[in-house]
Specification:
Elements lengths: L1 E7 L2 E2 L8 E8 L2 E9 L5 H10 L4 E3 L5 H10 L2 E3 L6 H10 L11 E3 L5 E3 L26 E9 L5 E4 H4 L3 E4 L7 H7 L7 E6 L13 E5 L14 E5 L5 E9 L3 E5 L9 E10 L1
Parallel strand pairs: 1-5, 5-6
Antiparallel strand pairs: 1-2, 1-3, 3-4, 7-8, 9-10, 9-11, 9-17, 12-17, 13-16, 14-15, 15-16
Helix pairs in contact: 1-2
Length: 280
């Protein structure tokens, strides 16, 4: 497995479309065995995604990334985890340990450390079947191994929300490394290659239950730029440490705006058809 990180002098570069270098990590059995730094030649997001595909990168860890880049990465077969920052090496180690939990929002704005909400070129979406880091450690013969699976995810009414079959490329991840939601990891942990399994996941095995404390209201005047936001829009805000986190605009009044930081899949029961294609 290969993981790439947008790279700038040891840290995660925050603007995918302007990335000049990537650090690429070779991962075997859930651990980094080698790494190298490659140049991007200043290409735009389409060419950057193509470059990562040519390098056989399986996963990109980055800061902000937009809808166009998200689409380009999907077409190149590169999975995505955005919203990360800080030391690049530590981020990869944290990801493999399940300690790095990326969000699943499409980000069209960013609330910077200066207290402004502003447009930027990059947004983010991470497929619902993966990137749901957790601290649970499953047991089974596939734990710690690189697994490739096809899957189809549906809600209880039969509506499909995600499918690797439609993309034509199996999903690759290290089982038990926190790259998947708990129930998905548990299902794959003891599967045989070629086996197809159907699982029904309660919210506790997926994205948890909504937290009422994650819904908050602030004065619009306290967040310059928020006056242009619309209900339903997904954006990034920053916490007291300057770390970005995704929220959805839940309501907006004349002088206040309400954000919901719960995962969009929180509280939902999910169904997966999982086919184990390969184990390395």
């Amino acid at each position: 497995m290969k993981i790439a990180v947008t790279y700038d002098n040891g840290t995660i570069f925050q603007h995918f479309g302007r990335t000049e270098t990537f650090k690429v990590y070779e991962v075997e059995n859930g651990a980094v065995v080698s790494s190298e730094i490659i140049g991007s030649n200043g290409a735009g997001h389409g060419a950057l995604a193509e470059l990562l595909g040519q390098q056989a990168v399986d996963l990109l860890i980055c800061g902000g990334i937009g809808k166009g880049a998200q689409t380009a990465l999907a077409e190149a077969g590169v999975a995505l985890c955005a919203g990360a920052q800080g030391d690049a090496d530590q981020a990869v180690e944290a990801y493999l340990k399940g300690e790095l939990t990326p969000s699943d929002a499409v980000c069209d704005h960013h609330h910077g450390e200066e207290g402004h909400c502003k447009n930027h070129e990059d947004g983010h979406h991470c497929g619902e079947g993966h990137c749901g880091g957790h601290s649970h450690a499953p047991s089974g013969k596939n734990v710690g191994k690189t697994c490739r699976t096809h899957y189809r995810g549906t809600f209880n009414d039969g509506t499909q929300f995600d499918s690797s079959y439609d993309r034509g490329e199996p999903l690759e991840f290290v089982c038990g490394a926190g790259m998947m939601i708990k129930g998905f990891d548990d299902a794959v942990a003891d599967m045989e290659v070629g086996e197809i399994k159907h699982v029904h996941l309660m919210p506790e095995e997926a994205y948890g239950m909504p937290d009422p404390d994650a819904i908050f209201t602030i004065e619009i005047r306290q967040l310059p730029g928020s006056e242009t936001l619309q209900v339903g829009e997904q954006v990034y805000l920053s916490n007291q440490y300057g770390q970005p986190f995704p929220v959805r605009v839940a309501a907006k009044e004349e002088s206040t705006i309400t954000f919901d930081a719960n995962h969009e899949m929180a509280g939902k029961e999910l169904n997966f058809q999982i086919e184990l294609v390969e184990v390395q």
